[in-house]
Amino acid sequence: MSSLNKGLERVEVDLMWDPSPAGSVPHDLDLIAATYTEDAPSGAPAYLVHFDSRSPDGTITLSRDSRDGKGLGVDERLILELDRLRHRYVRVLVGVAIQQHNGRLTFGDIARPAVRIRNRHDELAAVDFTNVGEATAARVAEFVRDDSGAWGFHAGVHGFDADPTTFATIMGS
Ligand SMILES: [Ca+2]
C-alpha cells in the first residue's frame, strides 16, 4: 500500500560554531544521532552515530567532523536517509554535545553555535542555543515514523546537563 504523504526522505543536519579564542583550549562540539525501535521508542538507543560510531547499515552518516569549529561554513554534518531505515526503527533523535575536557563548558560559553535542519532543499528548522545557554548538551530534532510509515519532524530544543556519553544514553527519555 502506498501513501500520498511520502514524508521526510533525506535530511541533513548542519552544526556550526566559532572557534575558541586563539591560545585557549579548543571548543569541540559533536552531532549525535540516536535511533530507537518500536520495542523501546524512549528507552536505550538501538545505535548511535557520531564521530566515533557508525550506523550498521549506512543510512545515517556523519559526513563532516570538527574538533575545534575552525572550518569555513559547516563544521559537522549528519545525513539521515530516513526513507532507507528499516521499518522497525520508529524514532530518530539528533543532539549536540559539548566535549567536557577542561571544566564545565555550556552553550553560553561557545561562540555562535547554530544548527540548520533541511529535508532536501526545504528548511525544517534553524536552531540557536540562546534558550539553553546553561546546558552542556541539547536535543535539537526529533523524527518519528507515523502509522503509514512516513517520517515527520518535531521541532524543539531541550537542554541537558550531562557529558556527551551520558547524554547519548538519556536523550531519548
Ligand atoms: Ca566534534
TrEMBL record:
Gene3D superfamilies: sav2460 like domains. Pfam families: TerD. Belongs to the CAPAB/TerDEXZ family. It comes from Kitasatospora acidiphila. InterPro entries: Stress/Tellurium_Resist (IPR051324), TerD (IPR003325). This is TerD family protein. It comes from the Bacteria. Residues 4-162 form the TerD domain.
